[in-house]
Write a structure and sequence with these properties.
alpha+beta; Ribosomal Protein L30, Chain: A; PH-domain like; 4-stranded antiparallel beta sheet; 16 strands; elongated; binds zinc ion
Length: about 325
């Protein structure tokens, strides 16, 4: 038996044979073929002739759906002849890149070479990526607001001395909320809604909570009298003035050491969100001064903006 390679469509009747039903049929047929209403209605008088012949499977599917919507009862019969090379109005498509009109059966554009199936696949992927990105940005903004609220809440019960931020006035961002000042032998350490800011002999240093991998307060090391040692360990070596270091220590005064639980809370609870899929599972690495973070879930790479405390996805085209 020969392979079925095209389809013929025969008219069986109209579900609604009234004048209104006949008009629906005529306008559907007109849209599909460009024939006039008169010619279309003429077909109703000779049902033995096929409405369509040698349609490709795609054309047949489109046509069947259109006729079914118009209330037309039809029969589809297989045909072993090739669909004709010269296509009617139904069977053409416009290239989405260059606008060239050509048969739908062509897998790629005859003028610019665009592969249609691949283009459609990429469109779908791009739309999915954009939806995910939008969702992740919304999530990141929401998380940032939650931490802003938390900082404000803390300030309500622990007001911050105005003078506390004077030293850091230059470094503070506009929407950043400073909420806790710690004092140490090495210099002041300010916690804001985004990051740690500290002044030491190396200069004013800054790092987002998200880059803190570990906090050690008190520790096993020998304590100085009336001091408590705080050591922060980072996910990657961080630029600290002239040098680069994976950890930093302070000798806090007694009063500052009472805030140990706040330091732990802020350093441990915060994680960067993947800008592509929203996962909080980034793997950090540094390249010179730039810190990168790759999502362990979807492999999207990010650049870390240390001042803004943001993971910015690197979008590849
Ligand atoms: Zn084209
Ligand atoms: Zn991801």
């Amino acid at each position: 038996m020969a392979d079925v390679i095209s389809f013929d469509i025969y008219l069986l009747g109209l579900r609604d044979p009234s004048p209104a039903g006949r008009t629906r049929f005529a306008s559907a047929f007109e849209r599909l073929t460009g024939h006039s209403t008169e010619e279309s209605l003429e077909l109703l008088r000779r049902p033995s002739a096929p409405l369509f012949q040698r349609l490709s499977s795609d054309q047949a599917r489109t046509t069947v759906n259109a006729l079914d919507d118009a209330g037309v009862c039809i029969e589809v019969r297989p045909n072993t002849e090739m669909p004709p090379a010269e296509e009617g109005s139904l069977a053409t498509q416009e290239c989405p890149r260059c606008g060239f009109v050509q048969p739908t059966t062509d897998p790629e554009c005859a003028r610019c070479g665009l592969v249609f199936a691949k283009w459609e696949r990429e469109q779908v992927q791009r739309m999915q990526r954009e939806a995910r990105l939008e969702e992740a940005v919304t999530k990141a903004i929401q998380v940032r607001r939650e931490w802003d609220d938390r900082a404000k809440g803390y300030l309500e019960s622990h007001p911050l001395d105005k003078d506390a931020t004077v030293l850091f006035a230059q470094a503070l961002g506009q929407e950043e909320i400073p909420f806790l000042l710690l004092r140490s032998d090495e210099g002041p350490l300010l916690l804001t809604s985004r990051r740690f800011l500290t002044q030491r002999e190396e200069g004013t240093l800054s790092f987002p909570f998200e880059l803190v991998a570990d906090v050690d307060i008190g520790g096993k090391l020998v304590q100085k009298k009336d001091k408590v040692r705080l050591q922060l360990t980072f996910e990657v070596p961080i630029e600290l003035g002239e040098k680069v270091s994976k950890s930093l220590a302070w000798q806090l005064d007694k009063e500052s050491s009472f805030s140990a639980n706040v330091i732990m809370d802020w350093a441990f609870a915060r994680r960067f969100i993947c800008g592509s899929c929203g996962a909080k599972d980034l793997d950090f690495r540094s390249e010179g001064k730039q810190i990168h973070a790759r999502c362990m879930h979807c492999a999207t790479d990010h650049e870390i903006d240390v001042v803004e405390a943001l993971a910015v996805p690197v979008v590849q085209e």
